[in-house]
Amino acid sequence: KTRNGKQLEWIFVPTRNAVRGQGWYDNYDENTVPSRPWKWSDEPDKLRSSDVCYDNGSFSRSHCPSPPTCNFKSKWGEAKLCINRVPTPDKSFFYVLVMKCIPFWENW
After folding, report:
1. C-alpha to C-alpha distance for 68 and 101, rounded to whole angstroms
2. What does the alpha-carbon distance between residue 95 and residue 59 come to, in Å, rounded to a whole number?
3. pLDDT value at residue 56
4. Residue 63 and residue 52: Cα distance in Å, rounded?
5. Distance CA 79, CA 44 (A)
6. Quick one: DSSP state of residue 61?
7. How far is CA 46 from CA 27, 31, 36, 85, 89, in A?
8. What is the DSSP letter of 66?
């Protein structure tokens, strides 16, 4: 499936694997979508200058792939970029794990 001619994907950063498809995006139902979604919406995410990604045993900003393009609209509204950051095992810093498109009203 595509949205506006674009294949949606999650980018799993450590392996640079793109998980293609948008079952997770289309898997909402009318009861999931808030009646006033703008109340919970935050700004689209972006890679920050301080972000690092893992590759081949090291963390660096240069290891981060380009984020997916989230400029489309579906029945759930406009999409926005969401970047999931997780702590290292020693909790000394966070790194980018996943970049994905989510409905604009989501906050996760």
Report:
1. 7
2. 8
3. 87
4. 7
5. 9
6. G
7. 24, 29, 24, 12, 24
8. P
